[in-house]
Amino acid sequence: MANLNDHMGRPIVAVTGIGVVTSLGVGKADNWAALTSGKSGIHPITRFPVDHLNTRISGMVDFLPSSSQGSSHLTYELAETAAREAVAEAGLESADFGGPLFLASPPVELDWADRFSLYNSDKQDAGAERLLRVARALKELDIFETTQFGSIADRLADRFGTRGLPITLSTACASGATAIQLGVEAIRRGECDKALSIGADGSATAEALIRFSLLSALSTHNDIPEKASKPFSKDRDGFVLAEGSGALVLESLEAALARGATILGIMRGCGEKADDFHRTRSKPDGSPAIAAVRAALADAGLGEDEIDYVNAHGTSTPENDKMEHLSLSTVFGERIGSMPISSNKSMIGHTLSAAGAVEAAFSLMTMRESVIPPTINYDNPDPAIVLDVVPNKKRNAEVGTVLSNSFGFGGQNTCLVMAREPV
Amino acid sequence: MSSPRDVVITGIGLVSSLGEGPDAHWQKLAQPGLQPVLEAARFAPYTIHPLPEIDWNLQIAKRGDQRQMETWQRLGTYSAGLALDDAGIKGNDELCATMDMVVAAGGGERDEAVDAAILAASESRNDRDVLLNEKLTTELRPTLFLAQLSNLLAGNISIVHKVTGSSRTFMGEEGAGVAAVETAAARIRSGQSTHVLVGGAFQTEHSDMLLGYELAGYLHRGAWKPVWQRQGAEGGGVVTGSGGAFLVLEQREHAESRGRKIYAELGHIVSGRARRRLGELDAEIASLLSQAASPDGELLAISGASGAHAATAAEKATFDAHPAIAARAFSTLTGHMKEAQFPFAVALAALAVDRKAAYPAFDATVEKPFVGVPRSVLATAIGYHQFEGMGLVKAA
């Protein structure tokens, strides 16, 4: 008889379904094959013209029917596709999920394509006045729904038959991890015995790219796109904007075992800590990220020496990778030099609101497959960052526990600890 | 029976066209026949309830911080500061560092001038995507992005007020406000949190914020009317207002141990997602009401009704079916504040419980009088388009 409660007497939370979409493809099989062969999904931008842009590469998902239909439609399709895979793997009814939905998705705005088409539908008056006048005469809700922050989750709730008011959230680049954390917490509080947590981001528009560019956050290594994302390298120069989605079916271990579900992994712990230093930069001593890692370990009931592998946030920005190294080396001490730590973003770029969920999916697969995906493009190590980044080639290894980091603008720091086995 | 893990309200931060702070709101709202503050010209044909004059320095000491935000984030950060002050938490490093935070947020303000210039140029250009790159790369202010990001209201609250236990931002109009309060309360009840800052803000004085309603024709046009009287009038029934509402929710034991004044206890929050296209809204509202309160006794209901025709009619029908419910739709006097709507309703409910008095009717032709002391008060937010929630606020 398995122990069904954790070290704090709370229900243990199992993962029974995983789904993922990135620029490497749809589904776990294609993604895992590409990821473990060190293949990059970063490619030249073709969705919109790149005139005047300093960054002309990305990890956009260009192969879905909604890829050219605007952020809202693509984000929905990404979320739906990943969730469909996860729910099917869990063996649950695809239209009657019966638990709550937690969706990490990008903030929405009226797409420029719609702005242009509304504005140019007549010539009376100008500016906002014209947009408002044209808007109120619209007969269809399609454009309206792309501007409502709750609409994607509402559609997903219809599609999967999730229970209650769906929660849509943003903690910037930590959003995907927060969606999982909310699901874990709801199960631990006994509010439900299963939850659907999704991170999805299809918002790589020209304006999004320009906004990040203006903050000097993006790589401008355009010439060889697949080499642009190089976490922990000396010549890293920013992240690569990307799209994707990850979905997890979370269940209390008790409920999962009772229905004979396959346990794919365990969500052992979640930790977070907000940073009050600056809107885009971390406190120089790394204390909030350190506190988030420690909170996740404490929540998981694991010591520093019980983490086998770190799935890094590893964005490839000068700032993140330096600060992530500082916080990990503070927590793990000397052991840090010999712990495998790799960044999926070296291959898929930064999937923003989806990243925490996508990387949790890959962390769970790392444990199940006993293969650690590499950090590619590690040709010029940063001498100030001494880490075993699993350079360039996958590694076969028994991995029983993973720490996955997510850090975001606005002082967001969220860490997840996952395990292969319940105890 | 009270329990040490009850959720109690120990801080209220409010801003609306009526003023700022719980006392100012109570004094105004307790006046029978209070007239709303309206601005009918600036966004004609839409009327809005504008922000009052605010001295941002009172809650956002550094000019540098103020410059990093647009009005929406300033308003939220300011309202949050009022709530923290009210709860005696502001400036207490230890309490702030262990305080959790759930913010209900939409997005921040775009640069209207840049957008208007791009739209104007689009009339004579076919290469609109190139035009976009050309203008946005040269004319956008780099840090404006941070003033637009949904989670940066919470980020600014962390920076300005040092609330750093945890920081989560929920999105999704009124439903985000409901879920934020619901989640914060659940955390306290389960022992995950001892004190949580929860709330939101809405800045309506920007064309995009109106557009977010008007793409579905939700805004009321023509002469202003109270919320319950907009059916059949020109437009969709919603009159918006700028405002913010933050609450400090606290475990009873935690609040008592530091000797704080308790406004009220927060009962369970109930929420739902009626499939309105299938006609489920009426039944959903009735079901939420029966879960949240005992609707057959005398009950004061602080309603977040938006004025949107279908949702408001459904809420009114439910109240009409329970003769002992006296509803007070505060949007008549403040306008609809989207994500802040439910936290605002809870705050007004807590004030009535604390002051042991009901508000007079905000619309005496429709709302019934309430005689006596309200021991428990209902707060509602039925989304103008989707999502519903209610909660009961009780004497502490």
TrEMBL record, chain A:
EC numbers, comma separated: 2.3.1.41
SUPFAM superfamilies cross-referenced by the UniProt entry: Thiolase-like
Highest taxon listed in the record's lineage: Bacteria
Pathway: Lipid metabolism; fatty acid biosynthesis
GO MF, any single term: 3-oxoacyl-[acyl-carrier-protein] synthase activity
Domain called Ketosynthase family 3 (KS3): residue spans: 10-420
One cellular component (GO) term of this entry: cytosol
InterPro entries linked: Beta-ketoacyl_synthase (IPR000794), Ketoacyl_synth_AS (IPR018201), Ketoacyl_synth_C (IPR014031), Ketoacyl_synth_N (IPR014030), PKS_Beta-ketoAc_synthase_dom (IPR020841), Thiolase-like (IPR016039)
Keyword Acyltransferase set for record: yes
This protein's UniProt keywords: Acyltransferase, Transferase
Gene3D superfamilies found in the cross-reference section: 3.40.47.10
GO biological process terms, semicolon-separated: fatty acid biosynthetic process
PANTHER family noted in UniProt: 3-OXOACYL-[ACYL-CARRIER-PROTEIN] SYNTHASE, MITOCHONDRIAL, POLYKETIDE SYNTHASE-RELATED
Family: Belongs to the thiolase-like superfamily. Beta-ketoacyl-ACP synthases family.
NCBIfam families: PRK06501.1
Protein's recorded name: 3-oxoacyl-(Acyl carrier protein) synthase II
Organism: Mesorhizobium amorphae CCNWGS0123
UniProtKB/TrEMBL annotation, chain B:
Positions in coiled-coil regions: none
Keyword Transmembrane helix: no
Domain Beta-ketoacyl synthase-like N-terminal: 5-255
Domain of life: Bacteria
Enzyme Commission code(s) on record: 2.3.1.41
SUPFAM superfamilies: Thiolase-like (SSF53901)
GO molecular function, one term: 3-oxoacyl-[acyl-carrier-protein] synthase activity
Keyword Oxidoreductase: no
Enzyme class: transferase
One GO process term, biological-process aspect: fatty acid biosynthetic process
Alphabetical keyword list: Acyltransferase, Transferase
InterPro entries: Beta-ketoacyl_synthase (IPR000794), Ketoacyl_synth_N (IPR014030), Thiolase-like (IPR016039)
The name this protein goes by in its record: 3-oxoacyl-(Acyl carrier protein) synthase II
